[in-house]
Amino acid sequence: MPVGIVHRDAAAAAFFDGAARGELLVRRCASCGGFSAPQARACAHCGTPEQEWAPSAGAGTVITWAVVHGRPADGEAAPRTVVAVVELDEGPWLQAQLTGVAPEEVSAGLRVRAGFEHPEGGEAVPVFHPA
Amino acid sequence: MNRAPVIAGLGITELGKVYGRSAPEFAAEAVRLAAADAGLDLAEVDGLLTNTGLSRDVGLGLQRDLGLRDLRLLSEVQAYGSSAGAMVQYASMAVSCGMADAVACVFADAPLKERSPGGSAYASAGRAPKGWQGLAAASGISSATTMYALAARRHMTTYGTTSEQFGAIAVAQRAWAARNPLAQLREPITLADHQASRWITEPFHLLDCCLVSNGGVAVIVTSADRAVHLRQPPVHVLGWGQAHPGHVMGRGSEFGLVSGAAISGPAALKMAGVTLSDVGVAELYDCYTYTVLVSLEDYGFCAKGEGGDFVTSGVLGPEGSLAVNTGGGQLSSYYMWGMTPLSEAVVQARGQGGDRQAARNDVVLVSGNGGVLDHHSTLVLSPHAR
Ligand SMILES: [Zn+2]
């Protein structure tokens, strides 16, 4: 199932600028250098609010996943969407859609790599596919 | 003067697919019912704590809706599914120190609309298609069910927990619900029914998920001295605790593996001066079957990771050795957030459970779970004073 439309707000603007040019941005602490999730308002490791944007290498591991079942159209199978919590190699967790893999083939520990989808009329959305 | 806190009144409105009434109307009715149940005049209520659900319209205005004058305590409380337990805790503290004498705690909600599916009420609530929340929604993560499914799957892959083990919880609770006149779903189900029920979000089948209900529930907290002169057998609030883990979503997180019950449970038992083996009835927040399983582990009824074997070992259900969710819980009776386990706990502690009354009710444990395992409250209740 394709990703949906999302619009930016002030807090997420820099993240979506990165996504538009194919960069997966996370937060890096100005104090301890630790990485936090993009939406973190303070460092997950030391609590410092001062953080800068830094590109993730985009490689990660599936921690857990779920298969969302949509409502079936007439005579058709219900659409299924695989969503996952991915641990980036830098440490932060992202929640994103998994693409290019059947629900039955997903497992915890699956190595994945970030990509981006560019839906018409919305911001670029990060997704992950098997590495 | 014995100011030890007791629950002296319980009010439950009509519940379920009840249309044409707003959440504030349900809330007012629940408080009136709770006062009448206690044998109190409404005007004797001098404290009011409210917890609003999805409708977000139950709040301070309830004082005027009820015509209450000169309250000595009034506030909105919000920690999602842990709020009912939290309200009783704050009321207990107010009564104990003499700040107020009779505090009404109420939850009400009216998310169900006529001619729209129940699931839609919770799927789209409060989601704006912008920023981080919008990004989650655009990625397909638009409901609490998805987040709990992610949590449950992590438990499964870490400890080998299975869907059939979740199903055992659903089957046991439905057997209890068959004995509860207030339960919305009372037809017995089998494990095969659970497995055959449609997928909502894997690993959850339909029968892993709670109901959605309209209605309101209130309790009255007063002092042991005052309760002696009231209508109902007092339910003593012996101990309580909260836990808000503040999970960081990153490397090393216990998301899905541990709930706040691991901290609020031991704290509440210690305050009550009892141990887990004294607990005869456990009313556990059960937004999903998984939530019951992880809570049983975290309270210590079984070891961490052994919840799956524990729930299939014959402990659950009306014939089991531990009375868990004796009214059918949120899965089968009614979904009033933390008021579902709390209301049934009051019934059991009073010995008013009828066909579903647990034999050993000296210590009743109540678990409230809010957010996605983000907020937790525990109460220890008893028909006996400490
Ligand atoms: Zn830091």
UniProtKB/TrEMBL annotation, chain A:
Xref: InterPro entries: ChsH2_C, ChsH2_Znr, NA-bd_OB-fold, Thioester_dehydratase-like
A Pfam family per the record: OB_ChsH2_C
Domain ChsH2 rubredoxin-like zinc ribbon: 16-48
ChsH2 C-terminal OB-fold domain segment(s): 53-116
The protein's name in its UniProt record: DUF35 domain-containing protein
Organism of origin: Microbispora corallina
UniProtKB/TrEMBL annotation, chain B:
Entries under InterPro entries matching the protein: Thiolase (IPR002155), Thiolase-like (IPR016039), Thiolase_C_2 (IPR055140)
Source species, domain of life: Bacteria
Positions in coiled-coil regions: none
Residues that span the membrane, as ranges: none
Annotated Thiolase C-terminal domain residues: 243-382
PANTHER family referenced in this protein's UniProt entry, alphabetically: ACETYL-COA C-ACETYLTRANSFERASE, NON-SPECIFIC LIPID-TRANSFER PROTEIN-LIKE 2
Name of protein: Lipid-transfer protein
